[in-house]
Amino acid sequence: MTHAPQARPLLEDYLDVWAGTDASRRAVADTVVALARATTEIAALIAFGPLAGDLGAARVDKGGGDAQKELDVIADQLILRHLNDAPVAAMASEEADEPVAVKAGGPVIVAVDPLDGSSNIDTNTAIGTIFSVLPAPADIDPASADAFLQRGRDQLAAGYVIYGPNTSLVLTVGAGTQLFVLHPETRRFALVTERVAVPPDAREFAINMSNYRHWDEPIRLYIDDLLKGQEGPRDVDYNMRWVASMVAEAHRILIRGGVYLYPSDARRGYTAGRLRLIYEGNPIAFLMEQAGGGASNGAEPILDLVPTTLHQRVPLVFGSSEKVRRVARYVAAPESIAERSPLFAKRGLFRP
Ligand SMILES: O=P(O)(O)OC[C@H]1O[C@](O)(COP(=O)(O)O)[C@@H](O)[C@@H]1O
Ligand SMILES: [Mg+2]
Ligand SMILES: [Mg+2]
Description:
Binding site for Mg(2+) 2: 113, 116, 280
Pathway: Carbohydrate biosynthesis; Calvin cycle
Shape: globular
Helix content: 25-40%
Mean pLDDT: 93
Bound molecules: 1,6-di-O-phosphono-beta-D-fructofuranose, magnesium ion
Domain Fructose-1-6-bisphosphatase class 1 C-terminal: 199-331
Distance between the termini: 61 Å
CATH class of the largest domain: Alpha Beta
EC number: 3.1.3.11
CATH architecture of the largest domain: 2-Layer Sandwich
Number of strands: 17
Number of domains: 2
Family: Belongs to the FBPase class 1 family.
Structural class: alpha+beta
């Protein structure tokens, strides 16, 4: 069946209008287009599934629970190849220890999680690619780790591509968050929503509940209160989802609200959470804030953190902004927050 492309602006058109004649914006636009081209190739490969070989086959163990898969490596190589066509000085990847130089004099640098949710490759579940575009620093080698230790607030663009039932690109260049969908026949991304807005009050949370016993008390208390539903301080029943692909959780939350948590926990290798600040936390936080949502490490906005190492992990909470703020109130003072008071609970002391 063929669906003629409707008259929607293509990604390139959208970026053309945004960039105008501004040379710095043009560099960002060209970089985003190169990344988008890489992801259309990744999407085409993923669509073959096992017919393309064992894309979920294990490669070397990166430690800390991150087993590298065949598709992690292929996606990484495809992105680097496409970035050669863009004004990009260097690329850092979750899959490589050190950044690599791309084009001398390029005004931007790119950090990528080439394949997010790689534990789902074998299961035909949504997976994704996450990217962050930063200015190339003038004073240091752009292909050094130090070049990437910039606050998320300094990102020029960020986005992810989700390889799901359809392939979608969610992008921000600092002018709201846009949703583009890949037309399966033309292989071009077309604009579907120009201003994505995170719904503020969905009753849904995403967390890996199997880690409950490893969490700090504030996170346990917060989740306990959600689980109490109508009988608890929230006074409503909550639903839970956990896909184990952050892009899938982020996408669902952008479309219908809710909150995602991957907190730090007591397991070895998880004391700073699981997600990577530069490749995952910062781009998702930029997209969330631009869509009216929020993202924090449980205390401070993710975008205000200054990374100290390239592959640094970060506890990550994102989604509807009031929910992100509430988690921070639990973390700051779990025993004293008004929301836990019996006064506010349906079955509390003052219930008639
Ligand atoms: O298996 P867990 O511990 O629930 O972790 C799932 C999380 O790990 C991630 O898969 C990490 O991403 P990678 O696949 O890029 O390593 C997130 O997408 C996801 O939210
Ligand atoms: Mg990831
Ligand atoms: Mg990854």
